[in-house]
Specification:
The protein has six helices and 13 strands. The protein is α+β, with helices and mostly antiparallel strands and 273 residues long. The longest helix is centred in the N-terminal third of the chain and has 16 residues.
C-alpha cells in the first residue's frame, strides 16, 4: 500500500495522477467531488485544482485518471492516449441509451448471431472509421448536452406511443479501433454485482434484464480517444442483422496505466486521510 501523501501540495511539483477504479453506478463527477473534498481537507488548500482525463459512463468501471494540482495540466495529454476496454456486447435487443441505463425497447432476431459470426465480424470494425456517438451522452450539440435533448425526445416518443428515434442530431466523428479480440461468448450477460446504492449512485438506473436469455460477447477493445463503446456495440448488432447493447464495460488501460495499477476509491481516500 502506498504511503499517505504529505500535507503540503508543494511537495508534488508535477502534481498527482491517481488511477482510480471507478465504482459501478458512480458518475465520473461523483468520484471527482469525493476526491476533491478529501484533497482540499488534506492539503488545506481551498482553490486546489482537480480534474479527470476521460469520462467513464455511470455503468462502466475501471480506470478513471484523477489529476490533482499541477497534474491537471496533463489531463488533455492523458486523455489523448489509447484506451483499452473489456466490453460485454449483448445481442438480440436494443435500448435507447445503447446500455442498461434504459430498458430494453424491442427484441431483435438472432438468426445471424453466433460465436463464429461474431468472431468473423470483428476484423471489419478494426481501423479508422466514422462513428456516431450515443444521443444519451455528454456530447455538446449547439451548447446543449446531447442527453438533455435525448430525454425530451424519449418522453415525446412515449407520450405518442411511437418508437424512440434519435434522428440525425449528432454528427459522426473519426475514431480508430486498433484491435478487437473475442475473450468469451456467453449464453447470457455477465452483469456487474449491484452494491447497496448510496447518495451518489442511487439515481442511476440499471434496467432489469434477468428474465432475458441473450447471447453476450466479451470483447477486448483497443481504441483511440473519443471512441464510444456503446456505439460500437450498436453497430455490431446491426452488422449481424440484429440489435445489440452494452451490458458491461470495464476500462483496463488509459494514459500508460493498467487496471493492475488502479486504486479503489477507499484506498485513495485513505491516502488523503
Amino acid at each position: 500500500m502506498q504511503e499517505p501523501f504529505s500535507h503540503n501540495i508543494e511537495d508534488y511539483p508535477q502534481g498527482i495522477v491517481l488511477p482510480i477504479d471507478k465504482p459501478y453506478r458512480w458518475t465520473s463527477a461523483d468520484v471527482i467531488r469525493k476526491v476533491k473534498y478529501a484533497a482540499i481537507r488534506h492539503f488545506g488548500k481551498k482553490n486546489l485544482k482537480i480534474g479527470h482525463a476521460g469520462t467513464l459512463d455511470p455503468l462502466a468501471t475501471g480506470i478513471l485518471l484523477v489529476c490533482i494540482g499541477a497534474a491537471t495540466k496533463r489531463a488533455e495529454e492523458l486523455q489523448r492516449s489509447p484506451k483499452q476496454y473489456l466490453a460485454g456486447v449483448t445481442f438480440g435487443a436494443v435500448t435507447a441509451s445503447y446500455d442498461l441505463e434504459k430498458d430494453i425497447e424491442r427484441l431483435c432476431p438472432l438468426d445471424g448471431v453466433s460465436e463464429e459470426s461474431v468472431r468473423a465480424m470483428l476484423p471489419s470494425f478494426v481501423g479508422v472509421q466514422q462513428q456516431v456517438a450515443p444521443l444519451f451522452s455528454a456530447k455538446s450539440v449547439d451548447g446543449v448536452r446531447a442527453y438533455e435533448t435525448a430525454r425530451k425526445l424519449l418522453k415525446q416518443a412515449r407520450l405518442q406511443g411511437i418508437p424512440f428515434d434519435p434522428g440525425d442530431i449528432l454528427q459522426s466523428n473519426t475514431v480508430e479501433i486498433y484491435s478487437l479480440a473475442l475473450e468469451r461468448y456467453l449464453p447470457r450477460p455477465e452483469l456487474p454485482v449491484l452494491e447497496a446504492a448510496d447518495g451518489r449512485s442511487s439515481r442511476i438506473n440499471v434496467a432489469d434484464i434477468s428474465g432475458y436469455e441473450l447471447p453476450t460477447a466479451m470483447i477486448r477493445v483497443d481504441c483511440s480517444k473519443g471512441t464510444y463503446i456503446r456505439s460500437l456495440a450498436r453497430d455490431m448488432g446491426e452488422a449481424l442483422g440484429s440489435g445489440a447493447f452494452l451490458s458491461s464495460l470495464r476500462r483496463t488501460a488509459n494514459g500508460g496505466f493498467t487496471i493492475s495499477d488502479a486504486l479503489s476509491l477507499e484506498e485513495v481516500l485513505a491516502l488523503l486521510a
